[in-house]
Design goal:
The chain is globular and about 45 Å long. Strands 3-2-1-4-5-6-7 form a 7-stranded parallel sheet, with helices on both faces. The model has no long low-confidence stretch (mean pLDDT 96). The chain has one domain: Rossmann fold (3-Layer(aba) Sandwich), CATH 3.40.50.720. Helices cover 42% and strands 16% of the residues. The longest helix has 29 residues. The protein has 8 helices and 7 strands. By secondary structure, the chain is of the alpha/beta class. Helix 3 packs parallel to helix 4 and helix 4 runs parallel beside helix 6.
């Protein structure tokens, strides 16, 4: 795949999966804009200082003004939306604030970034690619028991992906999503030390699917929510 001359926005690009996606993009010639909210992650980002990387501090991707700052003046080819948040909790223990936090961090942020990306791509008139990140519970809602607010938010991301794909296909914009199971990251290993790590998909493996969907090589796939479960 060749991303030479292509500009790609990667939200959540300083996290574990985002770093793997950014590495792949840079290795294939892309220029990346990466918004971040956690300064510590930005400081650890291995591609900090790369001439083809622009890191932008944002307060909140669920804020329209913050999102606009990311996309202004960008000749955009692809927008990859990894940013989000996870919090478990039974419905009986989840108040409105906790519910809205999951919806804002996962669904609203994705919606606003999709909106900004679509407007930038339509203005450029050359089509493009959008890749969202849903989650396994978005496809298998029963597996979302005990994390219902998160499941609702990620199900919304899946629905957004399918509806938007139909809406912008005529503009040459292909919209898809991946739905990972638990990924093999240091944070997940620490949180679940007794789990079978070998069954979890590696971030590089999930990144490979994202990169194809975001690439010019993807000529026909749209409206897909691709399971990336590994052996889990």
């Amino acid at each position: 795949m060749d991303f030479s001359g292509k500009h790609v926005v990667v939200t959540g690009g300083t996290g574990a999966l985002g770093t793997a996606v950014a590495a792949g993009l840079l290795g294939m010639g892309a220029t990346c804009t990466i918004p971040y909210t956690h300064e510590a992650e930005a400081q650890r980002f291995p591609h900090r200082g790369d001439a083809k990387v622009k890191l932008i501090a944002v307060s909140d991707l669920a804020d329209e003004a913050a999102v606009a700052k990311v996309y202004v003046g960008v000749a955009l080819w692809a927008s990859i939306h990894i940013a989000g948040g996870f919090a478990p909790g039974k419905v009986a223990d989840t108040g409105k604030a906790a519910l809205m936090a999951q919806i804002d961090s996962n669904l609203v942020s994705c919606f606003l970034c999709c909106r900004a990306a679509v407007n930038a791509m339509i203005a450029a008139g050359s089509g493009g690619r959008i890749v969202n990140v849903a989650a396994r519970p978005a496809l298998e809602q029963r597996s979302g028991a005990g994390m219902t607010a998160y499941t609702i938010a990620k199900s919304g991301v899946a629905a957004l992906t399918i509806a938007l794909a139909e809406e912008v296909a005529k503009d040459g914009i292909l919209v898809n999503a991946v739905a990972p199971s638990i990924m093999d990251t240091a944070a997940n290993r620490k949180a679940m030390p007794k789990a079978s790590f070998d069954a979890w998909p590696k971030v590089e493996e999930v990144a490979a699917t994202i990169l194809f969907l975001a690439s010019p090589d993807n000529q026909v796939t749209r409206g897909a929510i691709v399971p990336v479960y590994g052996k889990a």
